[in-house]
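Quick one, tokens below:
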């Protein structure tokens, strides 16, 4: 009975984090972009520093009419937002935030599980683009598919590199095996993993599938109200998952400086928050890539770097054993 209660409590904690952390990232993005770009609007709602901006956005989405195009595949159209969002909840269950039992559910093949489930989330955009009966949405869905094919490979290769270094595919095992001297020779893999993850989330500067100046808003053009809000929420949930995975795989997870592991989950959340800030910073700083530039970056830069990282990892493992 106690074991069952323990599992239920840990899963409940993961669910609460899933509901809260993406909203925190969304609110932070409002404020960071407002400061960096001199946007006054997000600073007014609610008074002090625009604290109620997120509440105002929620009320706005809830009040909008839920419209399904007459020519759309109704069931697929309505199901797509859930398919885009729920995989990130499953991934969050497997990400350890601290030593011991500080994980929703430990998975032995953690890397394979999280990368496979994250790939499923992209199907939500494909379903939305195909089911909307809109040429702009279909084009956005096809761009999403092309992006997935190009950027999934460097993510897998760099994750394989860190698994080679640790000698395990368990996420908790990777953090347990982590040594600080790994950082200099795994940093290239970390950057490749992070950039490829941004592209899979369709975050700027890799947001060609939702290019508003070309294809309106891509796969989400026909969505309104809460269904559109679910797609936005899936984007922020994806940011939390990507930053958490990068922290666990490449930045030592719950390990802090001077061997201060007692703080555990605090270090994990702090590193994740810093990476989330970087994601927002990149949105404000860099212009959108063209579709050809996006593909060229994946196939001619990221994949060769990922292969080089695997080769370097193999050399280091042979030398240090």
């Amino acid at each position: 009975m106690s074991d069952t209660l323990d599992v239920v409590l840990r899963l409940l904690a993961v669910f609460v984090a899933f509901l809260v952390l993406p909203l925190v990232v969304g609110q932070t993005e409002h404020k960071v972009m407002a400061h960096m770009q001199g946007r006054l609007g997000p600073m007014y709602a609610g008074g002090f520093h625009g604290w109620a901006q997120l509440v105002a956005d929620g009320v706005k989405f809830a009040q909008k009419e839920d419209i399904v195009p007459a020519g759309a595949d109704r069931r697929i159209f309505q199901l797509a937002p859930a398919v885009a969002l729920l995989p990130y909840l499953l991934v969050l269950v497997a990400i350890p935030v601290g030593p011991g039992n500080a994980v929703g559910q430990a998975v032995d093949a953690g890397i394979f599980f999280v990368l496979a489930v994250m790939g499923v989330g992209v199907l939500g955009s494909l379903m939305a683009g195909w089911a909307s009966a809109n040429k702009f949405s279909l084009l956005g869905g096809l761009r999403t598919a092309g992006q997935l094919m190009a950027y999934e490979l460097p993510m897998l290769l760099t994750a394989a590199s860190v698994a080679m270094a640790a000698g395990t595919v368990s996420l908790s095992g990777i953090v347990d095996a982590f040594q600080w001297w790994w950082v200099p020779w795994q940093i290239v893999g970390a950057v490749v993993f992070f950039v490829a993850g941004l592209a899979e989330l369709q975050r700027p500067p890799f947001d060609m599938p939702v290019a508003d100046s070309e294809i309106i808003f891509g796969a989400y053009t026909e969505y309104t109200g809460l269904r559109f809000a679910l797609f936005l929420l899936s984007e922020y949930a994806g940011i939390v998952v990507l930053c958490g995975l990068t922290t666990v795989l490449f930045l030592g997870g719950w390990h802090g400086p001077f061997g201060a592991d007692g703080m555990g989950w605090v270090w994990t959340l702090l590193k994740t928050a810093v990476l989330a800030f970087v994601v927002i910073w990149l949105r404000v700083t860099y212009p959108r890539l063209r579709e050809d530039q996006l593909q060229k970056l994946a196939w001619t830069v990221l994949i060769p770097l990922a292969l080089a990282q695997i080769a370097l990892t193999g050399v280091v493992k042979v030398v240090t054993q």
